[in-house]
Amino acid sequence: MKVKALSRSMADYTRETKSDLQRVQRNIDPALHPLERAREYKRALNAAKLERMFAKPFLASLSGHVDGVYSMAKNPWDLDQIITGSGDGEIRMWSLERQETAWKAREAHRGIVRGVCNIPGGATDRFLSVGTDKLVKVWSRSEGAVSSDGTAEAIATYAGRHAFTSVDHHRSQAQFATGSSLVEVWDVERSEPVANLTWGADTINAVRMNQTEVNVLASSGTDRSVVLYDLRTRSALSKVVLKLSSNAIAWNPMEAFTFAVGNEDHNVYTFDMRRMDHAVNVLRDHVSAVMDVDYSPTGGELVSGSYDRTVRLWDVARGHSRDVYHTKRMQRVFSVRYTLDNSYVLSGSDDSNLRLWRARASERLGAKSNRERATAEYSDKLKDRYKHVPEVRRVLRQRNIPTAIKRASQTKHEMLASRRRKEENQRKHAKPGTKPRIPERQRPIIGTTSK
Q1: How many whole angstroms separate alpha carbon 163 and alpha carbon 159?
Q2: 87 close to 70: Cβ distance less than 8 angstroms
Q3: Is the separation of the CB atoms in 118 and 127 below 8 Å?
Q4: What own/partner pairs with CB < 8 Å and gap ≥ 24 does 215-220 have?
């Protein structure tokens, strides 16, 4: 004979400290809780309102440069370090923890510092810089010499034939690539390039090496093309031509074949290098040219800086930004970076300031207790569950943006709607099949070529 008995241990219901909550037995039968859905909705609405109420993304403005900040690099082996290059030829190394300059070279280049990048490895603090003075310089905070007037001096210098626009270093080999009127691959032990790569462009805007598929190199040029090269054969792989030129390239750190480009047509396009005939996604919210893009360390988000004086954060799977950052004094944004702990965003603009932002505007900084963490996770789940309800969606999407950007966005929306109406009218009066519909992800692409 089976006997069922109810047993309850006092240890399960006794508080260890006075601050602990009393454990209560709860029957989860839906019939006993007819108002549960209404309570959940109210909690989701309150969570959305609290998120917008406590959204204060701006943390600090690091001043020190005299001219605009046009290039930026992060050190994968030092979370506290960020390197910036200015329009007056100055290079600074910043400590994000102390929010101050840790090292600087006043006259690093004669002209704009167009690119900086760290030398991988972690055993050294060396980094590269390129400028419009046709020089590539190697710097080190610990190894570099200092002149009598206190100015830092470069460890090594490489002379090129053209003004440089970009630089990036190989992940494991002693090689780096520069962009000028062509893509040049350099060996650190040689004073001349070991390979010259070109495919039609007059000027290269950006050069980026893939940090996962380390033998793949991407470049964008003024001829509106994005070209992929193979460093092993030192030849081109494929080429895609867009309607307008691209200013920046960023590789996804978690997906080896995916990269993003920031374009002059106000959009960010993500591509799969295996199929370049269409974009994987089109991110559209900017109202002016996109000057720089960068992936988060998780590969799930993007940050972009634009000529419209805003910084936008994106979910790579969605077409619109999840947040937009701006200040009254911030001017055109030329460089942006995600920090490697996925918690902060950095932006450099031509008002000479480096700004530090939260990656999530309302996230509380510092250590959290288990109860606080559980409450935040519960609130996020509620907002995600009810994000399609009009009231919750309106609160979550509400942003205060400058009047000029709002007007430009409305004008752009009207122009695109007018263009779509015109195409529909032409399609109605044309012979059937002569004017097919072009998907939005193929519309900006003029053609692709593979070798």
Answers
A1: 10
A2: yes
A3: yes
A4: 216/273, 217/177, 217/183, 217/185, 218/249, 218/251, 218/259, 218/273, 219/179, 219/183, 219/249, 220/245, 220/246, 220/247, 220/248, 220/249, 220/261
CB-based burial label for 233 (10 Å; 0-12, 13-18, 19+): exposed
CA distances from 211 to 72, 102, 205, 304, 319 (A): 17, 27, 19, 20, 26
Query: How far is residue 276 from each of residues 208, 214, 296, measured CA to CA in Å?
Result: 17, 19, 23
Instruction: Report the residue count for the chain.
Output: 451
Angle between helices 36-53 and 390-397 (to 10 degrees): 10
pLDDT digits (tens, 9 = 90+) for 141-185: 887 767 666 678 888 999 999 999 999 999 988 999 999 999 999
**Dihedral sign, Cα of residue 187, residue 190, residue 195, residue 198:** positive
- What are the strands of the beta sheet with 216-221, ordered from one edge? 204-209, 216-221, 225-230, 235-242, 445-450
Average pLDDT of span 178-199: 91
Helix (H, G, I), strand (E, B) or coil at 40: helix
**Token pair belonging to 269:** 């396009």
Helices then strands, each counted (H, E), the chain: 5, 29
pLDDT at site 150:
64
Contact 175, 193 (CB under 8 A): no
Residue 8 has pLDDT above 80, yes or no: no
Whether the CB-CB separation of 57 and 323 falls below 8 Å is answered with yes
The DSSP output letter for 266 is: S
Sign of CA pseudo-dihedral 423, 429, 435, 437? positive
